[in-house]
Design goal:
Elements (H helix, E strand, L loop, with lengths): L7 E2 H7 L5 H9 L3 E3 L2 E2 L6 E2 L6 E3 L2 E2 L7 E6 L27 E2 L8 E7 L2 H8 L7 E7 L7 H7 L13 E5 L2 E9 L6 H8 L4 E9 L2 E2 L9 E3 L2 H7 L4
Parallel strand pairs: 9-13
Antiparallel strand pairs: 1-4, 2-3, 2-5, 5-6, 7-9, 7-15, 8-9, 10-12, 10-13, 11-12, 13-14
């Protein structure tokens, strides 16, 4: 690698691409399993350029990506945080290689469903900015059936118990399944969905987020499972066509 180029230690690169730990990288070097630009790596602290150098493990090229974009089907019982001294967090559900990501927004501990995690700060900001009006859609199971006036009240802006007036929201449900509603909001206040229905005299018994912006929860992901976003999903989230 040329001097003056931005560099990363080889062992840290191995961790970043999920190929192993730093101690495992040392073992790989001793076993002559790692090459940099065709040359066998002799030290695990070798400086490499992740964008320009070709780094191989057992002959297979390792690819470094600056940003990670993950879709998690969040289960109940974990909190939307990167670390917590007492509670299990969503990062505990991910392999160590994804230690750089953070949740985009929060889901309550007992709320399940779509949670986007990334280390792309610009995208994180755009998706959460109130000025962007990004839709968030929830499947809401209620204690009592939806009432005919819910649509009008949601559209007018529900007034919460503290006097806050919510932005207009859209609610839909099937007449034969009135206990399950689909609510689309553009805010993320504390316990907002639960508080909105409480203001209407109802109670949320189960809450699942199924969409955020253009990103829809993958129905093939079981609770606690995740996958990387496709390039098209990332482009759509960024508003690119």
């Amino acid at each position: 690698m040329e001097k003056g180029k931005q560099c990363l230690r080889l062992d840290k690169f191995i961790v970043a691409v999920g190929a192993g730990s730093r101690s495992q990288a040392k073992t790989m070097v001793k076993a002559k399993r790692l090459t940099v630009n065709g040359q066998v790596a002799k030290k695990s602290d070798l400086a490499v350029n992740e964008q320009e150098d070709q780094i191989c493990l057992d002959g297979e090229v390792l690819v470094y990506s600056e940003f990670d974009y993950l879709m998690l089907n969040k289960p109940a019982g974990v909190i939307s945080a990167t670390e917590d001294p007492q509670e299990r967090t969503v990062l505990d559900l991910l392999p160590a290689r994804y230690h750089r990501v953070a949740p985009v927004g929060r889901l309550d501990k007992d709320t399940v469903g779509l949670l986007l995690l990334t280390n792309d700060g610009h995208l994180n900001h755009n998706l959460l900015s109130p000025k962007k009006h990004v839709d968030k859609c929830y499947e809401v199971t209620l204690a009592a059936p939806c009432q005919p006036d819910y649509k009008e009240k949601m559209q007018a802006g529900v007034v919460l118990e503290d006097g806050y007036v919510c932005l207009p929201a859209r609610i839909d449900w099937q007449d034969d399944i009135p206990h399950i509603a689909y609510l689309t909001i553009q805010e993320g206040k504390f316990h907002q969905v639960k508080r909105m229905f409480a203001a209407l005299g109802n109670q949320v018994t189960h809450l699942k987020r199924i969409r955020m912006g253009s990103l829809v929860l993958d129905e093939h992901l079981a609770a606690g499972e995740f996958r990387q976003l496709t390039e098209e999903e990332v482009r759509q989230l960024k508003g690119k066509r």
